[in-house]
Structure formats: C-alpha cells, structure tokens
Write a structure and sequence with these properties.
The chain contains twelve helices and 13 strands. The strands form three sheets. Strands 8, 9, 10, 11, 12 and 13 form a six-stranded antiparallel beta sheet that branches. The chain has a four-stranded antiparallel beta sheet with strand order 4-7-5-6. It has a three-stranded parallel beta sheet with strand order 2-1-3, sandwiched between helices. α1 (about 15-30) packs across α12 (about 300-310) and α3 (about 70-75) packs antiparallel against α4 (about 85-95). The two termini are about 25 Å apart. It has helices spanning about 15-30, 45-50, 70-75, 85-95, 95-105, 115-125, 125-135, 160-170, 215-220, 240-255, 290-295, 300-310; strands at about 1-5, 35-40, 55-60, 110-115, 140-145, 155, 175-180, 185-195, 195-200, 205, 225-230, 260-265, 270-280. It is globular. It is an alpha+beta fold. Bound molecules: adenosine-5'-diphosphate and magnesium ion. Adenosine-5'-diphosphate binds next to β5, β7, β12 and β13.
Length: about 325
C-alpha cells in the first residue's frame, strides 16, 4: 500500500505537525507501507497529480489541515483520506459551530458567546466586556473560534483580564469564543473507530503542575511536568465508561470518521463538559492519542494502516 502522510503546513502548529508526521511515517514504514511525506505547500497539487498513492493520512494541525481545506482538495482530486470528510472537519474545527451542534444534541458544553473583533470596535469594547461578564459570569476562558494547541487561549479569572485575553485571541483570527471556565479535572478521550465500531481506548487524565495552564509549552515540552494518567473502567473517581460513551457520541454527532480526540473538562458540580473534538489529533511523543493506542496494546503503524485502508473503501453517502 502507498500512503502519503500530509504534515507540516503553514499554521501556527507546523512544528507539532512535522513531529506528528515523522512519527506516523516511521510507524507506517515499519508495517511495510511505501510512505511519502508531503507538506501542504505550493507543490501539493503537483505532487498529488504526479504521484500514485492509495490514500492520504492527514496529520496537519490547525488551519487548512483541520478546517477541511486539505480534505476538500484530496476529495476533489479523488484521493481517499483517513479521518473526517472536509464537511465534517469544517464544522468540528469551528468551535462555535461544533458547540452549537453538541448543545442541540443535548451534550453538555460550557456556556458561550462567539463574537467578531469588529463588534468590540463598533459597540465599544468596555461595554461589550461588561455584558459578557454580566451574562456569562466569572471565571471565563477566551480562545480563538478556530485554533488549536491552546494557542491564544487565556483563562480569565477577573473582569480586568478579559480585554487582554480578547486581544490575544484576536491575534489568531477574527472571531473569539468566550466561555465559562470549568474548574474541575481535565480529561482527553481518544476515539478510534474501526470497521464502523468504536475501539475502547482509555481516557487520559491531564494534570499540569500546580496552578499551571495546559498551554502550548505544557503540551509539547516533555519536561513541562504534565502528568498523564490512563483511567481504567473501574476508576473510583471517574465514571470511565460514561466518559468513553460521551466521546463516542461527540464523534458521531459531529459526523467524524476514523479517529478523533475529545477534550472534556468537569464543571465544579461534576458535570463532564465537552470543550472540543480534534479531528487530526497530535501524534507526537507527548501526544495523548498515540499514548492511548500504545496503552491499549495496539501498534500505531498497524492502526494508521487500517485507517488508511478503511479510507479506500467507498463510504455510503
Ligand atoms: N471552558 C474551559 N474551562 C477550563 N479550561 C478550558 C476551557 N476551555 C479551554 N480550556 C483549557 O485550554 C485548553 C485548550 O482549549 P481547547 O478548547 O481544547 O482548544 P485547543 O486545544 O483547540 O487549543 C484545554 O485543554 C483546557 O486546558
Ligand atoms: Mg483541545
């Protein structure tokens, strides 16, 4: 089988994607797959036309690789790709759209408002900020509506922190999401869908060093001291089967395919709230998805090969 691993790209998460791409390529090669490592750049289309591959495995993070652009180009060119379709990627990557779909399906997600930067300019930032605090309360979180790797995400504990947090989010895009801050534990649930059914991967409890946010550095610097604990079904503190079922439901409601990672955070009252679903989860040495694969006794290359093969089977439309 010949697979093009698409990694790199021009997003803020290029470095992470390059690391993910290298890892997936090595794992696939160990399975005897003929791998080509493709960047998403100006030469992408000519590579696509010049090379015969059976499938593409997209490990781009942020931007074009997660918002459905790369998937759309692959679909136009008739190249099967692992993971969600371009349409599903687009709505999952837009946190405001994804949250609305989850809420409509009865899935708990932190209360939120999404606003473009122009609103703050046109109506006056101070007045809009006051409304946000009066309506959503404190503490809050501000983040870009489309983004990833915690870039532009700020935890806002006081009203005075709201304005600079919005400025930070707007440096990543024109829309900001302002949502209630969940103060309970953080859990990421890796999802693997094989032949239409879900493989039970164990949720991972993410614990940062005291008082530290789960930011870019915490996520990708192995020395950041973040603790990842695989939760077993019989865990005394978490209803792990319910968390796994919730992640599978999110994957379904958002129309995802193959693989995803569902980020969940508990509210102070113990409710599991869904923050987002990542359609091309990180595959680096510190990433949760491959950690859970290894923990389940599965081989990353074998799983990526299966996902690539599954992509070549025509989907019912
Ligand atoms: N509503 C929230 N309450 C508490 N923490 C949050 C909230 N939203 C985001 N965070 C923190 O910020 C991190 C990144 O946010 P997330 O929405 O998953 O965006 P992304 O991973 O795409 O950057 C989360 O893993 C979590 O640690
Ligand atoms: Mg996340």
């Amino acid at each position: 089988m010949r697979v093009a691993v698409v990694a790199g790209g021009l997003s803020h998460e290029r470095d992470v994607s390059v690391r993910s791409g290298r890892r997936v390529s090595d794992a696939l090669r160990r399975q005897g797959v003929a791998v080509e490592l493709w960047d998403f750049d100006v030469a992408f289309l000519s590579r696509l036309q010049a090379h015969e591959v059976d499938a593409a495995f997209v490990v781009l993070h942020g931007g074009a690789g997660e918002n459905g652009t790369v998937q759309a180009i692959l679909e136009l060119a008739g190249v099967p790709h692992s993971g969600a379709t371009s349409h599903a990627c687009r709505s999952a990557f837009d946190k405001a759209v994804a949250k609305a779909r989850l809420a409509e399906a009865g899935i708990a997600t932190p209360a939120w408002t999404a606003l473009p930067s122009a609103t703050f300019r046109d109506l006056g930032a101070a007045a809009v900020n006051d409304l946000l605090v009066a309506s959503l309360g404190l503490p809050l979180v501000v983040k870009p509506v489309t983004g990833g790797s915690s870039l532009g995400v700020t935890l806002v504990d006081t009203a005075a922190e709201l304005a600079p947090a919005l400025v930070a989010a707007f440096s990543y895009g024109v829309d900001a999401l302002v949502e209630r801050q969940m103060t309970g534990a953080e859990v990421a649930v890796p999802v693997l869908e094989r032949a239409g059914s879900f493989v039970p991967l164990q949720p991972v409890l993410v614990e940062t060093a005291a008082g530290q946010p789960y930011d870019y550095q915490a996520r990708y610097d192995a020395s950041s001291g973040v603790r990842y604990t695989h939760l077993l079904d019989e865990d005394p503190d978490f209803d792990v089967p319910a968390l796994r079922a919730l992640a599978a439901r999110v994957h379904e409601v958002l129309g995802l395919r193959g693989l995803s990672r569902v980020d969940i955070r508990f509210d102070a009252d113990g409710t599991a709230n869904v923050l987002e679903a990542a359609v091309t989860p990180g595959m680096t040495e510190t990433s949760i998805w491959p950690m859970a694969i290894a923990r389940a006794g599965l081989d990353l290359g074998q799983v990526c090969l299966e996902l690539s093969r599954a992509a070549t089977v025509p989907q019912p439309s």
